[in-house]
Amino acid sequence: MGAQKDSRHAVVTGTSSGIGAAIAARLIADGWRVTGLDRVATASTSPQLKTIEIDLADVDRVQNALRSITEVDALVHAAGYMRVAPLGELNPSDGEGMWRVHVQAAAIIANSLIPRLSNGGRIVLIGSRTAEGAAGRSQYAATKAALIGMARSWAAELAPRGITVNIIAPGATETPMLQDPSRSGVAPRKPPIGRFIQPREIAALTSFLLSEDAGAITGQQIVVCGGGSL
Q: Which of helix, strand or coil describes residue 154?
């Protein structure tokens, strides 16, 4: 990716817990500097991590915060949450809230950073296997499905600069979201491998997609489901 290993800089959302925290920890271990964007302060005390506490749904504040970032080699959008309801009981504010965090925030952050994203840089969006559709999760699934079209469009636009854009779509992953009371009506099921996906596994794949060896992979959705989609 052009830059030396110890100077690479990644912007990662959702770094306070779950997949985002695991990705930040993995990148730091790989020698990256990480700027985390999250509503809650990150527990890590690593000097390689700087956290900006911010509500990703607040467009103006996000844009203002990003102005302080002068150079970046990768963007990983891992922030997200789930609200569930069957058709007939959908809550418009839930759908709008998830859209703002999952899709709009990704677009605003990428749009703001792209002039400063290095040639050969990387964008990874954390999607969901649910993007294919799941009973009781239509609003959540719709936001994750939107990421696919957005990522593929960006991949086509940015290919001449050597910038790759990909989606990692986990199945049921052992994070706080898995135990969120708001999803009690659609309890997660263990994949055929007999256990839930681990955040570190998603972090490892993210690390690879950000590496030079993944330079020919772009516009793809990589599903990590433990056999759940078989």
A: helix
Report the amino acid identity of residue 90.
L
Torsion of CA 91, 152, 165, 150, to 10 degrees: -30
pTM for the whole thing?
Answer: 0.91
Among residues 112, 128, 140, 169, the one annotated as catalytic is 140
Query: Which helix (H) or strand (E) covers residue 207, if one does?
Result: helix 199-209
**Strand, coil or helix: 11:** strand
Yes or no: say if 25 and 44 are a contact pair by the CB < 8 Å rule: yes
Question: What is the Cα–Cα distance from 225 to 229, expressed in whole angstroms?
Answer: 7
Question: Using alpha carbons only, how large is the chain's radius of gyration in Å?
Answer: 17
SS3 content of the chain, % helix, strand, coil (to 5): 45, 20, 35
Q: What torsion, rounded to 10 degrees, do the Cα atoms 9, 11, 12, 16 define?
A: 90
Query: pLDDT truncated to tens, each residue of the chain (230 aa)?
Result: 544 445 799 999 999 999 999 999 999 999 999 999 999 887 778 999 999 999 999 999 999 999 999 999 999 999 999 999 999 999 999 999 999 999 999 999 999 999 999 999 999 999 999 999 999 999 999 999 999 999 999 999 999 999 999 999 999 888 876 666 665 566 678 888 899 999 999 999 999 999 999 999 999 999 999 998 88
Question: Is 140 annotated as catalytic?
Answer: yes
Residues 78 and 212: their CA atoms lie apart, in Å, by 21
How far apart are the C-alpha atoms of 206 and 50, rounded to whole Å?
19
